[in-house]
Design brief:
The protein is built from ten helices and four strands, in the order H-H-H-H-H-H-H-H-E-H-E-E-H-E. The chain is α+β, with helices and mostly antiparallel strands. A four-stranded antiparallel sheet has the order 2-3-1-4, with helices on one face. A hairpin with a 3-residue loop joins strand 2 and strand 3. The longest helix is centred in the first third of the chain and has 26 residues. It is elongated and about 65 Å long.
């Protein structure tokens, strides 16, 4: 299979930058001025900034550094390069919008439009391979080990964060922040094609089947079902079937790009029984 062209990668980085700028616009023009908090490391940064007065643009970068180092060791350099790029653009954009007039001080408007815009921005970043938040890096690495979906891990972290916000800033701000998170999640899933949704991937290949299976298992913690198939023109080949989350789609694309494969991907409405994902040793 052909490697991705340089122009394709440039386009991906461009779209990540667009998404990061949209997300920064939402944070600084709608949410932060109204003490409405995002989730994850960005939310923690907003919380610390509210107490210390430290610039949010710098905090978001500093707090994500340990997660980037962790991601470099576990996810590879290309993932971290895209994450660094996304976070850097986001921080620079936040610094720019810090000096712009705020659009509204009406909390309900801030929640509604801030959530919608932030969801679009985050969805674009994720769709094109970037990452704005260190919690997603850790969650995606832990997912094959602890058998807990990425979305659920992030949700658990944010529940604790919003409880803290409710105690510190009052329950109105806590509830507004939770409502924003719900809106962001819904919009993000539309843009990025599903919140922790599962995908069924059918891989046909004449290439080294064992190498493909080993790489999928090593990087995703997923096992494949294999059987012999025969094409009308191509003759005998092998088929692999694997179920993954949409967070892992980017990794699977990069894996199969290294081999001669034909891949079809389908949405899965429901899984009955266990979605087997073995722990990596």
């Amino acid at each position: 299979m052909k490697k991705k062209t340089a122009w394709s990668e440039v386009f991906n980085f461009f779209m990540v930058a667009v998404g990061a700028c949209i997300a920064a616009f939402s944070i600084e023009e709608f949410l932060a001025p109204n003490k409405i908090f995002d989730g994850g490391i960005v939310g923690v940064s907003m919380l610390i900034s509210s107490f210390t007065g430290f610039r949010l643009s710098i905090l978001t970068w500093i707090l994500n550094v340990p997660f980037l180092i962790f991601g470099w060791k576990k996810r590879g350099h290309m993932f971290v390069i895209r994450a660094i790029f996304a976070m850097t653009v986001f921080s620079v954009a936040v610094a720019f919008f810090e000096n712009q007039p705020n659009i509204t001080y009406e909390s309900l408007l801030a929640v509604t439009f801030g959530g919608l815009i932030l969801g679009v921005g985050v969805g674009l970043v994720l769709r094109y391979g970037g990452c704005l938040d260190g919690t997603e890096i850790v969650a995606s690495i832990l997912s094959p080990r602890i058998h807990v979906a990425v979305g659920r891990q992030i949700l658990g972290f944010n529940v604790v964060l919003y409880l803290i916000i409710g105690f510190v800033f009052g329950w109105n701000q806590g509830l507004y922040s939770i409502l924003t998170y719900v809106i962001v999640s819904v919009v993000m899933t539309r843009v990025e094609e599903g919140f922790d949704a599962q995908r069924g991937c059918l891989i046909f290949t004449h290439d080294d089947v064992q190498a493909i299976k080993d790489k999928i298992y090593k990087e995703l913690g997923r096992t494949c079902t294999e059987w012999k198939t025969e094409g009308y023109i191509g003759g005998e080949n092998r088929a692999l079937y694997v179920v993954i989350s949409h967070y892992e789609m980017r990794q699977l694309r990069e894996i199969v790009a290294e081999f001669e494969c034909f891949v079809t991907i389908s949405d899965i409405d429901e899984i009955i029984g266990k979605n087997i994902k073995l722990t990596l040793l």
